[in-house]
Amino acid sequence: MSSLVQSVDWLAIAPPTIAAVVGLVVLVADLFVAESRKPLLGWIAVAGLAAAALMLLPLLDADRSTFCLVGDTEVCSYTADRFTLVIQFLVLGGALLCALLSVTALKDSGKRLPEGEYWFLFLSSAAGAALLPASRDLATLVVALEVASLPAFALVGLRHGDRRSSEAALKFFLSSVTATAVSLLGISFVYAATGTLHLTRVAERIQHVDGQLETLAQTGVVLTLVGFAFKTAAVPFHFWVPDTYVGAPLPIAAYLSVIGKAVGFSGLILVTVVALPSYADAWAPALAVLAALTMTVGNVGALRQRSTRAYSAVRLLAWSSVGQAGYLLVPIAAAGYSDDPEKAVGSTLAYALMYGAVNLGAFAVAALVGRAHRLNRVADYRGLYAASPLTALLMGFFLLCLAGLPPGVIGLFAKVTVFAAAVDAGLGWLAVVMAVNVVIALVYYLRWTALLFRAPETAAEGETAGGAAAPHRLPAPLTAALALTGVLGIALSGAPQLVLRFTETGLF
Known about the structure:
- This is NADH-quinone oxidoreductase subunit N.
- The protein is mainly alpha-helical.
- It has a domain at about 275-508.
- The chain has helices at about 15-30, 40-55, 80-110, 115-130, 140-155, 165-195, 200-205, 215-230, 240-245, 250-275, 280-305, 315-335, 340-370, 385, 390-405, 410-425, 430-450, 475-495, 495-500, and strands at about 65-70, 70-80.
- It has a two-stranded antiparallel sheet.
- A hairpin with a 2-residue loop joins strand 1 and strand 2 (about 70-80).
């Protein structure tokens, strides 16, 4: 009889494990650290995330797997391959930048945000997000999804005495739980039809499902995708996004806009391309329609914000993130029609890396402006160049990257890559919809960019003109976040092949 005891590849699981362990360390340390020294917890969290990201380097040499089936080392629950490492880099790097924003936000909030609970929840969510792309069975995939999501609900509503924050958390929680329940039902159907939860075995067995179970399998495929579509903020599962981003602490809104999407898209890729390639005729058209609807609703929603009262910068970024999610969905839909699905999926990864860097940069500037203007309206950015030239230039660069215009070269190339994926897959109509949406998005991105360089208006009482931060000296964590995102965006624009190469090489 073979032994059920397995050796664990600790190096392979190091990145999410370190994030989880540091979260526990922070929670325990919070009990013993004096109130005046609570900011130390934030720096422990930053160091932990940096260490977790550095542990990706030893994994670059070869694919590593662990928690495999006894007697079949090819079927494993955890695999650290190229796809896993790219998403884990995006998750841990993005979480590190959001942690830098959080250090300043917690200091400015006084006692409205409890630091120990905040960092424990933040690191727990990051650990779940880093685990998900390595998951190779449906059970681990759902557990990772919930570990990433449940702390995020609490982080959105963690601000004491803020009714808007509590309302945003409740809306986020109820809609997410509903989507997860639907996905679990779908997974149970897939398991009933195939008798396995491992993705590679599902891919093999679902092609030969007994005729009586075929309808059950098809229903399971559709329902399984719902939960991941929710995480990507795809229409019609996007309605929670604007209110949640505005109600959440700004670093958490930034976290959801990038890491939350990375979780959803990596899960969607694993379920469709790895587990269900034989059902591409079912999920590919559905994702193509979702992509068209998502980019259109997101961009039109952002365009309409000008007519609303208190034209919020964070709400505009929220609608923008919905539109960007539509572009990210295009290559995944194209993978269902393509002879080389890995190349199509590579386009999504390239776009996600670009989007993550520049969108977090835009949120970093929003965090800076929000220190002087509590409402953080788009109008508060008027004249930012006069008050802080370098910050205005960075914000303009980030917005042009999102729009896909020079000098944001990486944004332009990423959009061209996604567009090419749709054309190569024969989805000409989707490419046309994308082109129209890129033009629509130019209106609000360029409008915001132009506002940065206009003459500043007279400052309201208690505020600084032109969106400049009230303190003359920027906090070091906020400066570091701005510098990192700026350098990364400029480096990628100078050498776009650093991320675009994922469109030419295998990922799995």
